[in-house]
């Protein structure tokens, strides 16, 4: 990735994308261009081409409308710039200064533009095909923006890594393959990595994840990757649900509901990529990614309703719905994270359709036992504009979760509503006293079913950027 200052303008050898607000003048650096901006509608997304005359040393310009500056946000800027880059499909140099306004600093405009370039150019490579090389996008400013652009490009690369993992077909992204991906990343970054197979899980008594795994021909994996950037300090665990395919078990999903279930591992992919971002930035924090990975399929030994599973914590669980499997995988992962020393936990999962019904596809449902911990995360999500909405957990919900005549609890409360809160209450039963915990239900926000002008369809790496902000200690 190249960056230029205006003093190096003559070195730019591609067309220059110049974002402009309504009513703005053409930047002084391009004062030689004959363009009557009063005749142009610079509403967001509109593009105008100013071509250099033949033999001229001037650069060809693409003017990109941003609309009114008072309506601009970081999210709108990256979507507008990303859509322009994605549609142009040619090498460009983005002049970031004109995108700054009262709400967005020059550095933020550069960072959002660089992030947009990385995210918008991503396309999942068709199986058996060679990846297409993306056109080179460079950046121009009156200041040195190399640092913020490098950081934004790194963030986009980590988000795209998660998208690659989640978009991979489930026959190629099995629990074993996911574990090897984690091991490979840990080796590259010189991180501690521990992977438990069915044998170790049986020996330690992780009966919840093993129960879900019983119908699959692929073994389960429990994965922990540790990054130590602050020796001696306490660890935070990012815990992810890694269902590489979820057919629903004997509570079989409908044909329509089955499509896309390869992405039931978005929580796992996203926490692994968030840890990657933290480690590559060399943040001064201690963070681990803990992933429970399995398939939920039908098989001769598949778990079924009325079964009782004994979790890693020792608590027993009556199975009332085999399609409420994510919480079973997560509860053992949460227990293991605490045994590995985590004093704070953020778990992320495509957990409940009820959360989609409640919040749609723009808000992630958030639950916590530690309001100040959640406030910290919400503050970071406001910066990235990845929306969170807190939903309740209370004593009545815990009582419903613990209703069972044969076990300590049930895995799915029937016909009582509040499905996402009940799932969160189930998970909280496994959080030890004194451990701060946040549960993020990304069932509605983890992927796009259709492509948008600024991003391809499929997994989107939601909240990786927010988690990166939460653990930021090193300046860009």
UniProtKB/TrEMBL annotation:
Protein name: Probable cytosol aminopeptidase
GO biological process terms on file: proteolysis
Superkingdom, taxonomy of origin: Bacteria
Statement: the UniProt record of this protein carries the keyword Protease: yes
Predominant location category: cytoplasm
Keyword Hydrolase: yes
Segments forming domain Cytosol aminopeptidase: 321-328
GO MF annotation, one: metalloaminopeptidase activity
Cellular component GO terms held in the UniProt record: cytoplasm
Localization of this protein: Cytoplasm
PANTHER family: CYTOSOL AMINOPEPTIDASE, LEUCINE AMINOPEPTIDASE-RELATED
Residues annotated as the enzyme's active site: 253, 327
Designated gene of the protein: pepA
Pfam families in alphabetical order: Peptidase_M17, Peptidase_M17_N
């Amino acid at each position: 990735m190249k960056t230029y200052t205006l003093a190096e303008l003559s070195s730019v050898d591609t067309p220059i994308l110049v974002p402009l607000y309504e009513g703005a003048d053409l930047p002084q650096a391009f004062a030689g261009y004959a363009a009557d901006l009063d005749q142009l509608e610079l509403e967001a997304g509109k593009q105008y081409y100013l071509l250099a005359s033949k033999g001229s040393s001037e650069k060809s310009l693409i003017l990109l409308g941003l609309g009114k500056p008072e309506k601009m946000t970081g999210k709108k800027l990256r979507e507008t710039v990303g859509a322009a880059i994605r549609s142009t499909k040619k090498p460009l140099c983005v002049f970031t200064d004109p995108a700054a306004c009262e709400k967005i600093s020059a550095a933020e405009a550069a960072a959002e533009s660089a992030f947009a370039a990385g995210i918008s150019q991503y396309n999942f490579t068709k199986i058996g095909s060679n990846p297409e090389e993306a056109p080179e996008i460079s950046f121009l400013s009156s200041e040195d923006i190399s640092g913020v652009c490098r950081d934004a490009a790194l963030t986009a690369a980590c988000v795209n890594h998660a998208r690659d993992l989640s978009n991979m077909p489930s026959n190629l992204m099995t629990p074993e393959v996911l574990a090897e991906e984690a091991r490979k990343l840990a080796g590259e970054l010189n991180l501690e990595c521990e992977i438990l197979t069915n044998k170790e899980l049986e020996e330690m008594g992780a009966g919840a994840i093993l129960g879900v795994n019983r119908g699959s021909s692929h073994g389960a994996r429990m994965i922990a990757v540790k990054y130590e950037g602050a020796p001696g300090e306490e660890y935070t665990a990012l815990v992810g649900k890694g269902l590489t395919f979820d057919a629903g078990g004997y509570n079989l999903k409908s044909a329509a509901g089955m499509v896309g279930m390869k992405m039931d591992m978005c929580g796992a992919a996203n926490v692994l990529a968030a840890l990657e971002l933290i480690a590559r930035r060399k943040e001064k924090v201690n963070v681990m990614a803990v992933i429970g990975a399995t398939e939920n399929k039908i098989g001769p030994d598949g778990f079924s309703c009325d079964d009782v599973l004994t979790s890693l914590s020792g608590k027993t669980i009556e199975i009332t719905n085999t399609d409420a499997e994510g919480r079973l995988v997560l509860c053992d992962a949460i227990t293991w994270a605490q045994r590995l020393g985590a004093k704070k936990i953020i778990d992320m999962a495509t957990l409940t359709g009820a959360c989609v019904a409640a919040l749609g596809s723009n808000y992630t449902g958030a639950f916590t036992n530690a309001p100040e911990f959640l406030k910290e995360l919400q503050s970071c999500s406001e910066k990235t504009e990845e929306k969170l909405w807190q939903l309740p957990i209370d004593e009545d919900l815990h009582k419903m979760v613990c209703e069972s005549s044969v076990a300590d609890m049930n895995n799915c409360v029937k016909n009582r509503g509040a499905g996402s809160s009940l799932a969160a209450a189930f998970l909280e039963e496994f959080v030890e006293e004194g451990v701060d915990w946040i549960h993020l239900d990304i069932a509605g926000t983890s992927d796009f079913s259709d492509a948008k002008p600024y991003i391809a369809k499929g997994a989107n790496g939601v909240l990786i950027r927010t988690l990166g902000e939460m653990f930021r200690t090193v300046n860009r």
